[in-house]
TrEMBL record:
Domain of life: Bacteria
Signal peptide as annotated in the record: none
Similarity-based family: Belongs to the PTPS family. QueD subfamily.
Catalytic activity: 7,8-dihydroneopterin 3'-triphosphate + H2O = 6-carboxy-5,6,7,8-tetrahydropterin + triphosphate + acetaldehyde + 2 H(+)
Origin species: Caulifigura coniformis
Gene3D superfamilies recorded: 6-pyruvoyl tetrahydropterin synthase/QueD
Classification lineage: Bacteria, Pseudomonadati, Planctomycetota, Planctomycetia, Planctomycetales
Protein name according to UniProt: 6-carboxy-5,6,7,8-tetrahydropterin synthase
Pathway linked to the protein: Purine metabolism; 7-cyano-7-deazaguanine biosynthesis
Any Pfam family matching the protein: PTPS
UniProt KW keywords: Lyase, Metal-binding, Zinc
EC number in record: 4.1.2.50
Record GO terms (molecular function): 6-carboxytetrahydropterin synthase activity; metal ion binding
């Protein structure tokens, strides 16, 4: 039996998903004029990087990818996710309290229990984009030369949103 020669057409990707890559957080979204009640999810995340192998024969070190993603997840754990770019949700940060308004409704939450996110809605899609872009920034040179970063967010069992960022070429505007 002969060993196959390494194929120049082979492509590689690495993926990290762990039981502890989960954050428990509250949120609400608007759908048209209707606004959900405040509720929570256990949001599960996974990250995947595609691209060529480096000198260590890695796409990217699993451990570096896992640990950076874990830090991000831990920052969101046990918090209220607040969208700062929603056109109709007003957010006023006043010292130790954050006041959030939508139409006639008003929530006042301790500031350290809020995560003020640069997104228009806390949908699974935009959370996936936020996590992908922030992970990409924090991984920095470790992703140099790679092709794409994919971030999966599961909001409820079996309900995933996926954001894939190209890593080659111009960097897209941040969350615009
Ligand atoms: N494509 C998307 N669709 C929906 C999103 C989203 O982020 N992306 N989000 C929502 C709501 O936030 C909703 O809270 C989803 O939660 P879920 O618990 O699945 O909603 P249910 O009302 O069905 O709750 P059950 O407890 O499972 O009955 C909606 N769509």
């Amino acid at each position: 039996m002969t060993n196959p020669a390494p194929s120049p057409l082979a492509s590689f990707r690495v993926r990290v998903t762990k039981d502890h890559l989960v954050f428990s957080a509250a949120h609400f979204i608007t759908i048209g004029d209707w606004c959900e009640r405040l509720h929570g999810h256990n949001w599960r995340v996974a990250a995947e990087v595609a691209g060529p192998l480096d000198g260590n024969h890695f796409v990217v070190d699993f451990i570096a990818l896992r640990d950076q993603l874990q830090k991000l997840v831990d920052e969101l754990d046990h918090s209220l996710l607040v969208p700062m770019k929603h056109p109709d949700i007003q957010v006023n940060v006043a010292g130790e309290e954050v006041e959030i308004r939508f139409q006639k409704r008003r929530w006042v939450i301790p500031t350290d229990e809020c995560r003020l996110l640069p997104i228009a809605q806390t949908t699974a899609e935009l959370l996936a984009q936020y996590l992908a872009q922030t992970l990409c920034e924090r991984m920095g040179a470790a992703l140099k030369g790679q092709t794409s970063l994919r971030l999966d967010v599961e909001e409820n069992f079996g309900q995933w949103a996926i954001c894939e960022l190209p890593l080659a070429g111009p960097v897209p505007d941040r969350l615009e």
